[in-house]
Amino acid sequence: MGGSNTTWIYEQFLAFAKELSVLVVRAQDGAQRLYPTVENVHEAGILRTTRVPADVEPGIAELAGTLAGSVVEALEGVGVFCVELFLMPDGRLFINEVAPRPHNSGHYTLDACTVSQFEQQVRAVCGLPLGEVRLLSPAVMVNLIGEDFTRASTGDGLTHLLRQPGAKLHLYGKKSVRPDRKMGHVTFLAEKPEHAWEAAVALRKTLER
User: Fold this and answer.
1) Spatial CA neighbour of 207 closest among 121, 120, 163, 143
2) Phi/psi zone of residue 90: left (φ > 0), alpha (ψ -120 to 50 degrees), beta?
3) Angle at 152 between CA 147 and CA 158, to 5 degrees
4) Concatenated DSSP letters for 85-145?
5) Does the CA dihedral 124-102-138-73 come out positive or negative?
6) What Å distances lie between residue 42 and 20, 49, 84, CA to CA?
7) Between β-strands 32-34 and 18-26, what pairing exists: parallel, antiparallel or unpaired?
8) Count of CB atoms within 10 A of residue 122's CB?
9) Three-state SS at 44
10) Does residue 134 contact residue 113 with C-beta atoms inside 8 Å?
11) In this structure, which topology does domain 15-136 adopt according to CATH?
């Protein structure tokens, strides 16, 4: 198993209740902006949907933001960071991963926030003032992955999708479709979080047919 000099790290399995993440933007002078806590759903290790605001108690969302901000402050980095967390059934939060870049779970900011994560990245690394992170509308982002994209773009799938209220389609212009490859995403905006979620669930059911 690698010889006597091999180092092993054992991690306890966490039977988490939900996966959350927080986008933190840090400027060159140390100033920070935190986007709302979001809730993510993964399948086979691939992000499928992101829901904002997360369907958790306000205190949990606030604690997630506090932890994320503290981690990025300790790293002393500049730019956009995505801090992923596990929410345990008893309310505890564990940090899972820190991604030092704009993140797939933050794509909703293109349509649902005053300033997107991509613009914030440019502002931060160029020494410009950070923008607002205000959420303009509840939203759910659905990734179009591999065969999902094929189903959505054939027949009347694309037309049906664009007819949905509050639907914002983003295609990445990739030339070839492969299994598990992210080809684009759809963001659903709605006045109430549950309406955006219902639209996203309906799309997922359509893509799975």
Assistant:
1) 143
2) alpha
3) 160
4) EEEPTTS-EEEEEEESS--GGGTTHHHHBSS-HHHHHHHHHTTPPP----B-S-EEEEEEE
5) negative
6) 11, 7, 12
7) antiparallel
8) 13
9) coil
10) yes
11) D-amino Acid Aminotransferase; Chain A, domain 1 (3.30.470)
Tell me if domain 15-136 and domain 137-209 are identical in fold: yes
Residue identified by tokens 């997922």 is: 204
CB 102, CB 118: distance < 8 Å? yes
- Alpha-carbon distance 51 to 189, whole Å? 10
- With 0-12 / 13-18 / 19 or more C-beta atoms within 10 angstroms meaning exposed / middle / buried, residue 156 is exposed
Residue 54 · residue 61 · CB < 8 Å: yes
The Cα–Cα gap between 174 and 52 comes to 27
10-residue stretch averages of pLDDT, the chain, 209 residues long: 74 92 98 99 95 98 98 97 98 97 98 99 98 98 87 70 88 90 95 95 78
Domain residue ranges in the chain: 15-136, 137-209
Give how far Cα 93 sits from Cα of 14, 25, 82, 141, Å: 11, 21, 15, 23
User: Cβ(152)–Cβ(170) under 8 Å?
Assistant: no
CA gap 129, 31 in Å, rounded: 9
CA distance 79 to 100: 8
**According to the CATH classification, is domain 137-209 in 3.30.470.20?**
yes
